[in-house]
Amino acid sequence: MRVAIAGAGAVGRSIAGELLENGHEVLLIDKAPTAISVERVPQAEWLLADACEITSLDEAALQRCHVVIAATGDDKVNLVVSLLAKTEYGVPRVVARVNNPKNEWLFTEAWGVDVAVSTPRLMSALVEEAVSVGDLVRLLRFSHGDANLVELTLPPESAMAGTRVGDIAWPQDTSLVTIIRGSRVLTPGPEETLEAGDELLFVAAQAREEQLEDLLSVRREDTAED
Protein backbone atom coordinates (compact mmCIF):
# COMPACT_ATOMS: atom_id res chain seq x y z
CA MET A 1 0.00 0.00 0.00
CA ARG A 2 1.28 3.47 -0.87
CA VAL A 3 0.79 6.17 1.77
CA ALA A 4 1.53 9.90 1.54
CA ILE A 5 2.04 11.81 4.78
CA ALA A 6 1.78 15.61 4.79
CA GLY A 7 3.93 16.84 7.65
CA ALA A 8 7.37 15.42 8.38
CA GLY A 9 7.59 16.48 12.00
CA ALA A 10 7.84 14.08 14.92
CA VAL A 11 4.27 12.83 14.39
CA GLY A 12 4.64 12.29 10.64
CA ARG A 13 8.01 10.55 11.00
CA SER A 14 6.68 8.28 13.73
CA ILE A 15 3.71 7.24 11.57
CA ALA A 16 6.05 6.69 8.62
CA GLY A 17 8.31 4.43 10.67
CA GLU A 18 5.40 2.25 11.78
CA LEU A 19 4.02 1.94 8.25
CA LEU A 20 7.42 1.09 6.79
CA GLU A 21 7.92 -1.64 9.38
CA ASN A 22 4.61 -3.12 8.22
CA GLY A 23 5.80 -3.24 4.61
CA HIS A 24 4.09 -0.19 3.13
CA GLU A 25 5.50 2.46 0.77
CA VAL A 26 5.65 5.89 2.38
CA LEU A 27 6.13 9.38 0.99
CA LEU A 28 6.77 12.23 3.45
CA ILE A 29 5.93 15.77 2.27
CA ASP A 30 6.95 18.97 4.04
CA LYS A 31 7.62 22.54 2.87
CA ALA A 32 10.17 23.31 5.60
CA PRO A 33 13.76 22.42 4.59
CA THR A 34 14.60 21.82 8.25
CA ALA A 35 11.94 19.08 8.41
CA ILE A 36 13.53 17.07 5.62
CA SER A 37 15.56 14.63 7.71
CA VAL A 38 16.12 11.75 5.34
CA GLU A 39 18.55 10.08 7.73
CA ARG A 40 15.78 9.69 10.34
CA VAL A 41 13.51 7.67 8.04
CA PRO A 42 15.83 6.56 5.22
CA GLN A 43 13.45 3.97 3.80
CA ALA A 44 10.82 6.61 3.00
CA GLU A 45 10.55 8.83 -0.04
CA TRP A 46 10.88 12.54 0.73
CA LEU A 47 9.48 15.58 -1.04
CA LEU A 48 10.27 19.21 -0.17
CA ALA A 49 7.02 20.88 -1.22
CA ASP A 50 3.88 22.64 -0.01
CA ALA A 51 1.18 19.96 0.34
CA CYS A 52 -1.52 22.62 -0.11
CA GLU A 53 -0.38 23.28 -3.70
CA ILE A 54 -1.79 21.27 -6.60
CA THR A 55 1.56 21.33 -8.40
CA SER A 56 3.21 19.75 -5.35
CA LEU A 57 0.58 17.04 -5.11
CA ASP A 58 0.95 16.35 -8.83
CA GLU A 59 4.68 15.88 -8.25
CA ALA A 60 3.86 13.53 -5.38
CA ALA A 61 1.60 11.49 -7.73
CA LEU A 62 -1.13 11.53 -5.12
CA GLN A 63 -3.47 9.66 -7.45
CA ARG A 64 -1.28 6.58 -6.91
CA CYS A 65 -1.76 6.66 -3.13
CA HIS A 66 -4.16 4.40 -1.30
CA VAL A 67 -4.07 6.56 1.84
CA VAL A 68 -3.20 10.18 2.59
CA ILE A 69 -2.44 11.25 6.16
CA ALA A 70 -2.63 14.97 6.94
CA ALA A 71 -0.36 15.11 9.99
CA THR A 72 0.87 18.68 10.19
CA GLY A 73 0.57 20.83 13.31
CA ASP A 74 -1.78 23.26 11.52
CA ASP A 75 -5.47 22.30 11.31
CA LYS A 76 -6.05 24.61 8.33
CA VAL A 77 -3.33 22.84 6.35
CA ASN A 78 -4.68 19.42 7.31
CA LEU A 79 -8.16 20.35 6.09
CA VAL A 80 -6.88 21.68 2.76
CA VAL A 81 -4.70 18.62 2.18
CA SER A 82 -7.64 16.33 3.00
CA LEU A 83 -10.01 18.13 0.66
CA LEU A 84 -7.54 18.13 -2.24
CA ALA A 85 -6.62 14.48 -1.72
CA LYS A 86 -10.23 13.38 -1.84
CA THR A 87 -11.73 15.70 -4.46
CA GLU A 88 -8.83 16.25 -6.87
CA TYR A 89 -7.06 12.90 -6.65
CA GLY A 90 -9.76 10.47 -5.50
CA VAL A 91 -7.64 9.02 -2.68
CA PRO A 92 -9.72 6.19 -1.14
CA ARG A 93 -8.77 6.84 2.50
CA VAL A 94 -7.92 10.18 4.09
CA VAL A 95 -6.86 10.40 7.73
CA ALA A 96 -6.42 13.82 9.35
CA ARG A 97 -4.83 14.96 12.58
CA VAL A 98 -6.86 17.37 14.70
CA ASN A 99 -4.59 19.63 16.75
CA ASN A 100 -7.20 21.83 18.39
CA PRO A 101 -10.28 19.97 19.72
CA LYS A 102 -12.37 23.07 19.02
CA ASN A 103 -11.85 22.42 15.30
CA GLU A 104 -12.94 18.79 15.40
CA TRP A 105 -16.40 19.59 14.02
CA LEU A 106 -14.77 20.68 10.73
CA PHE A 107 -13.04 17.35 10.09
CA THR A 108 -15.89 15.65 8.27
CA GLU A 109 -16.65 14.06 4.93
CA ALA A 110 -17.43 17.54 3.59
CA TRP A 111 -13.71 18.31 3.89
CA GLY A 112 -12.65 14.94 2.49
CA VAL A 113 -11.81 13.41 5.89
CA ASP A 114 -12.61 9.74 6.42
CA VAL A 115 -11.04 9.45 9.87
CA ALA A 116 -10.23 12.34 12.19
CA VAL A 117 -7.75 11.69 14.99
CA SER A 118 -7.80 14.11 17.91
CA THR A 119 -4.93 13.36 20.30
CA PRO A 120 -6.55 15.04 23.35
CA ARG A 121 -9.84 13.22 22.74
CA LEU A 122 -8.07 9.90 22.16
CA MET A 123 -6.04 10.24 25.35
CA SER A 124 -9.17 11.09 27.31
CA ALA A 125 -10.99 8.10 25.80
CA LEU A 126 -8.15 5.74 26.68
CA VAL A 127 -8.22 6.94 30.28
CA GLU A 128 -11.98 6.38 30.42
CA GLU A 129 -11.61 2.98 28.79
CA ALA A 130 -9.07 1.94 31.41
CA VAL A 131 -11.24 2.82 34.40
CA SER A 132 -14.82 2.46 33.17
CA VAL A 133 -16.97 -0.66 33.45
CA GLY A 134 -20.44 -0.59 31.95
CA ASP A 135 -19.99 2.81 30.30
CA LEU A 136 -19.68 3.21 26.55
CA VAL A 137 -16.42 4.93 25.60
CA ARG A 138 -15.95 6.49 22.16
CA LEU A 139 -12.45 5.69 20.93
CA LEU A 140 -12.48 6.94 17.34
CA ARG A 141 -14.82 8.82 15.03
CA PHE A 142 -15.22 7.80 11.40
CA SER A 143 -16.41 10.82 9.45
CA HIS A 144 -17.75 8.75 6.58
CA GLY A 145 -21.15 7.37 7.53
CA ASP A 146 -21.28 9.01 10.99
CA ALA A 147 -19.97 5.87 12.71
CA ASN A 148 -17.72 5.52 15.73
CA LEU A 149 -15.42 2.90 17.19
CA VAL A 150 -16.69 2.40 20.74
CA GLU A 151 -15.74 0.19 23.68
CA LEU A 152 -17.63 -1.17 26.64
CA THR A 153 -16.40 -3.47 29.41
CA LEU A 154 -19.25 -5.85 30.25
CA PRO A 155 -20.17 -5.50 33.94
CA PRO A 156 -21.06 -8.54 36.09
CA GLU A 157 -24.62 -7.26 36.51
CA SER A 158 -25.28 -7.11 32.75
CA ALA A 159 -28.15 -9.22 31.48
CA MET A 160 -25.97 -10.14 28.50
CA ALA A 161 -23.31 -11.91 30.60
CA GLY A 162 -23.56 -15.60 29.75
CA THR A 163 -25.50 -14.92 26.53
CA ARG A 164 -24.39 -16.13 23.10
CA VAL A 165 -23.55 -13.40 20.60
CA GLY A 166 -25.97 -14.87 18.07
CA ASP A 167 -28.88 -14.74 20.54
CA ILE A 168 -28.58 -11.01 21.23
CA ALA A 169 -30.86 -8.57 19.39
CA TRP A 170 -28.24 -5.95 18.64
CA PRO A 171 -29.38 -2.43 17.77
CA GLN A 172 -29.56 -1.54 14.11
CA ASP A 173 -26.38 -0.04 12.60
CA THR A 174 -24.07 -1.62 15.16
CA SER A 175 -21.47 -4.35 14.65
CA LEU A 176 -19.51 -6.23 17.32
CA VAL A 177 -15.97 -6.30 15.93
CA THR A 178 -13.83 -7.89 18.66
CA ILE A 179 -14.02 -9.38 22.14
CA ILE A 180 -10.92 -8.87 24.30
CA ARG A 181 -10.84 -11.37 27.16
CA GLY A 182 -7.72 -11.08 29.27
CA SER A 183 -4.80 -11.53 26.88
CA ARG A 184 -6.98 -13.13 24.19
CA VAL A 185 -8.53 -11.41 21.16
CA LEU A 186 -11.65 -13.31 20.09
CA THR A 187 -13.62 -13.21 16.87
CA PRO A 188 -17.25 -12.71 17.92
CA GLY A 189 -18.93 -15.63 16.15
CA PRO A 190 -22.59 -16.41 16.91
CA GLU A 191 -21.67 -19.27 19.26
CA GLU A 192 -19.30 -17.17 21.38
CA THR A 193 -20.66 -16.45 24.87
CA LEU A 194 -20.13 -13.06 26.47
CA GLU A 195 -18.52 -13.03 29.92
CA ALA A 196 -18.38 -10.38 32.62
CA GLY A 197 -15.21 -8.35 32.20
CA ASP A 198 -15.08 -8.79 28.41
CA GLU A 199 -13.96 -5.68 26.55
CA LEU A 200 -16.31 -5.34 23.60
CA LEU A 201 -15.36 -3.23 20.58
CA PHE A 202 -18.11 -2.05 18.26
CA VAL A 203 -18.48 0.06 15.15
CA ALA A 204 -21.76 1.83 15.76
CA ALA A 205 -23.80 4.70 14.41
CA GLN A 206 -23.73 7.58 16.86
CA ALA A 207 -27.52 7.55 17.08
CA ARG A 208 -27.41 3.96 18.38
CA GLU A 209 -24.77 4.39 21.09
CA GLU A 210 -27.19 5.05 23.95
CA GLN A 211 -29.33 2.08 22.93
CA LEU A 212 -26.25 -0.15 22.81
CA GLU A 213 -25.08 1.00 26.25
CA ASP A 214 -28.52 0.36 27.73
CA LEU A 215 -28.57 -3.14 26.26
CA LEU A 216 -25.22 -4.16 27.72
CA SER A 217 -24.91 -2.25 30.98
CA VAL A 218 -28.10 -2.84 32.94
CA ARG A 219 -29.47 -6.11 34.21
CA ARG A 220 -33.15 -6.13 33.40
CA GLU A 221 -35.40 -6.82 36.33
CA ASP A 222 -37.16 -10.13 36.31
CA THR A 223 -40.81 -9.36 35.70
CA ALA A 224 -42.00 -12.94 35.76
CA GLU A 225 -44.81 -13.82 38.17
CA ASP A 226 -43.94 -16.04 41.18
Automatic annotation (TrEMBL):
- One Gene Ontology molecular-function label: monoatomic cation transmembrane transporter activity
GO biological process entries? potassium ion transport
Species of origin = Streptomyces rubrolavendulae
Gene name as annotated: trkA_1
Q: Which PROSITE patterns match?
A: RCK_C, RCK_N
Q: What is this protein called?
A: Trk system potassium uptake protein TrkA
* Presence of keyword Magnesium: no
Q: Which keywords accompany this UniProt record?
A: Ion transport, Transport
Q: Where is the RCK N-terminal domain?
A: 1-117
**Superkingdom assignment:** Bacteria
> Which positions fall inside the RCK C-terminal domain?
137-218
